[in-house]
Every structure is written in structure tokens, then in C-alpha cells.
Design brief:
Blueprint (H helix, E strand, L loop, with lengths): L18 E5 L6 H11 L6 E3 L19 H11 L3 E6 L2 H9 L4 E4 L1 H4 L2 H11 L6 E4 L6 H13 L5 E5 L16 H10 L5 E3 L1 H5 L5 H10 L4 E5 L17 H10 L10 H41 L7 H17 L4 H23 L17
Parallel strand pairs: 1-2, 1-8, 2-3, 3-4, 4-5, 5-6, 6-7, 7-8
The protein binds phosphoenolpyruvate and manganese (II) ion (MN).
Length: 374
């Protein structure tokens, strides 16, 4: 996919250190913004954030101060030497934020889910060079996230980035939103030039977990962090449990180990090359063995067809899976990891044997939830 991202637009900070966006979940008063910004000024924060219009899950919660808070945000940022950032959800928010001189806009998770809204926002920023960051949608749908990036790209926005804030799933404990790192890794694979920052606050939902998630983002080589900070977190009008004081935010940033994309250390380069050669060899063997295994699956499928025996042999499948999981466990592998691999292998076996059963007519894909085994 070709999404032109202009490397000249260096909104995303300085090479070798993470971009930091910090500030309260919501703007509550001019004094609260001034105090937060002042207390943040000892920490290296690139953009001072505050929510002006708050999309709340249920009515009756605090829905943001709205337009009057824009000049508060801007002047608090300017006074403490930070650029400013806020969330926009409607074209009129874009217009008001740009008029107030807000330096960076982000699209919230509840907006990214709706392509109509995203397109309206993209149309509203057309022709402006303001950086736009797009939060992942609340649902684990990478297509919607990429689609939103494409809409802004097609509107001519070149200073683009993504914010990883976790996804809403039934079992996200201990987090408010499951981090789903696999989605971020896949986004990076598809759009390697797109800067991605992580928002530990909205992933964690509680302040004691922030450091671990922030460090994990650094370990993966992500480009920065958005963290909520409030002068008196427990009294915050929105998201109190996940906000930290500006001083605690400073500690979180200072404690991070920031990793680099590579190293020119000779020992590192030599050993990584030798280890990668070994990985390549093992992977060649894995692929060859998978092909050999599939050949046997087909022979079994042929025998089942000739003898009119069902593809589903549930006792065999259950015994095989628990045997492989136990063997793998003894070798130090996680049973869940082994199970997931075998489920994928099994799904392809289903497809091949179904095709043989239907006399070679191609079985396009296995019916969802069906089980069969070689
Ligand atoms: C926010 O950053 O304050 C916010 C509402 O985040 P999200 O869109 O990730 O829920
Ligand atoms: Mn919040």
C-alpha cells in the first residue's frame, strides 16, 4: 500500500528519543491547565494535550468545556514552552482548533470506527499542514485504522501518525483495553514509514500499570507515548484512576529504557548474523516439514474418501492436540502458543481433506467451527 508520508514534516520529534504527548484527559479550568503545564515543564514533553470535547460513553458525564477551553490550552502550552494537541471529532472542532492555533490534532478511538466521520474530518483538514494522529478504533479492526490513515492521506495530509490505545474486548483484565500488540506490529509491517505512538493511559485504565506498557512500546521500537497527567489525579473530572501527577509522569519517562533500531557494535552484528542464519535454517526445515505433513494429510484424506469414513475424527484430534501441547510444554513452550499453531495447521488440513472428499473440487475454505483431523 502506498501511503506517502513526508519525512520532511518532522512533527514526530527527535531521532533516538520518544515523542511525548502529555496533559490532562480533559480541560477543566484555565488554572488546571496552567498548573499542569507548569509542573510538566521539568519533563521533556513535546505536546501538551487536553480533551476539549469529550465523547463520553454515557450521557450525563462531563462532556468537556468546549470552545472556551481552546485559548486556555494554547496559552498554557505557550507559557511552558510546549506545542499543543487536542482531539477532534467533528469538522467544527477542526475549524475551531486550527483557529485557536492548536498544533496537532488527533482522532479518537470512537471516531475512527466511523468512516463517514473520518471522511468529514479529512475533508475539514484538507489544505492544512497540521499533524494528524489517528487512534486505533475501539474494536480490534486493523482495516478501519488503516482506512482512516488512507482517508487523511488522500486529503493531502503528510504529517500523519497513529496512536495505539488498546481495544475493547470482553476479557481485557488487568487492562481497561487489551493492548493487542499484534495489531500494532501488523500496522508497522504494512505501513513501515508511519510513526506510531502508544497511549498507556487508555490501555491501562489504572496508573500502576503505565510503566510496563510504556516500556513495552519502547521495547518494540514505537515512536512515542501519550500519557494523561493531572495536578490532582483522583479529583479529575474524567479518567481519574489512570491519570498521574506531572511529577510521576516525569519519573515514568526517566525510568524508560529507550532502545534503538540497530547497533553498529561488532560483537552484536556478528552474533546477530550467525543467529539469524540458524533461524533461517530452522525455518527452512519447518516449511519442509509442514509440506511433508500436508502430503500425509492428503494420503489419509484419500483413504477416508475411499472407505467412506468421516473427516471428523474428534477423539484423534483431541488426543493429538493434548499430546503435542504436553510435549511442547516439556520443551519449555507455552501450551497456548502450541495450541494456536496446531489450530492453524488443522484448519489447512480441513481445507485439503474437504477438497479430496468433494472429489478434487476446490474447497474454498473450511466452514467456521467445523472440526476434522487427519
Ligand atoms: C483521550 O485521549 O482522552 C481519549 C478519549 O482517548 P480514546 O479515544 O483513546 O478513548
Ligand atoms: Mn482520557
Amino acid at each position: 500500500m502506498d501511503i506517502p508520508i513526508n519525512p520532511q514534516v518532522s512533527w514526530s520529534g527527535v531521532e533516538g528519543r520518544p515523542l511525548v504527548i502529555a496533559g490532562p484527559c480533559s480541560a477543566e479550568s484555565e488554572d488546571q491547565l496552567l498548573e499542569t503545564a507548569r509542573r510538566l515543564s521539568g519533563t521533556r514533553v513535546d505536546y501538551f494535550r487536553a480533551g476539549i470535547w469529550k465523547a463520553r460513553t454515557r450521557p450525563g458525564s462531563f462532556e468537556g468545556i468546549g470552545d472556551p477551553a481552546l485559548p486556555w490550552l494554547k496559552s498554557a502550552g505557550v507559557k511552558s514552552g510546549m506545542k499543543t494537541a487536542t482531539e477532534v471529532a467533528q469538522p467544527r472542532h477542526v475549524e475551531a482548533a486550527l483557529k485557536a492555533g492548536i498544533d496537532l490534532l488527533w482522532v479518537g478511538a470512537r471516531t475512527t470506527v466511523n468512516p463517514f466521520s473520518v471522511q468529514e474530518l479529512a475533508d475539514a483538514v484538507r489544505g492544512s499542514d497540521v499533524p494528524i494522529l489517528i487512534k486505533n478504533p475501539t474494536s480490534p479492526d486493523l482495516g478501519l485504522w488503516i482506512g482512516a490513515v488512507e482517508r487523511f492521506s488522500q486529503a493531502g495530509v503528510r504529517a500523519l501518525g497513529a496512536i495505539h490505545r488498546g481495544v475493547s474486548v470482553a476479557n481485557s483484565a488487568p487492562y481497561r483495553n487489551a493492548p493487542m500488540w499484534s495489531m500494532v506490529i501488523e500496522l508497522r509491517r504494512i505501513l513501515p514509514a508511519l510513526p506510531i505512538i502508544t497511549d498507556p493511559s487508555h490501555i491501562c485504565g489504572r496508573r500502576d500499570l503505565l510503566q510496563g506498557i510504556a516500556q513495552r512500546a519502547m521495547d518494540l521500537g514505537l515512536d512515542g507515548l501519550m500519557i494523561e497527567a493531572h495536578p490532582r489525579p483522583d479529583n479529575a473530572w474524567s479518567d481519574p484512576a489512570q491519570q498521574v501527577t506531572p511529577e510521576r509522569l516525569g519519573e515514568i519517562i526517566a525510568e524508560l529504557t529507550v532502545r534503538k533500531g540497530s547497533s553498529d557494535n561488532d560483537t552484536y552484528l556478528t552474533s546477530i548474523e550467525a543467529l539469524r542464519d540458524r533461524i533461517d535454517q530452522v525455518d527452512n526445515d519447518i516449511v519442509a516439514m509442514l509440506a511433508e505433513r500436508m502430503g500425509i494429510v492428503e494420503l489419509i484424506g484419500e483413504q477416508k474418501r475411499l472407505n467412506n469414513v468421516t473427516t471428523l475424527q474428534v477423539d484423534r484430534w483431541r488426543a493429538l492436540l493434548s499430546d503435542r501441547m504436553e510435549r511442547a510444554r516439556q520443551l519449555g513452550l507455552d501450551p497456548g502458543y502450541t495450541k494456536a499453531i496446531y489450530e492453524v495447521i488443522h484448519r489447512e488440513s480441513i481445507r485439503r481433506q474437504s477438497s479430496i472428499m468433494s472429489n478434487g473440487r476446490e474447497a474454498s475454505s473450511a466452514p467456521e467451527g467445523s472440526e476434522t483431523v487427519e
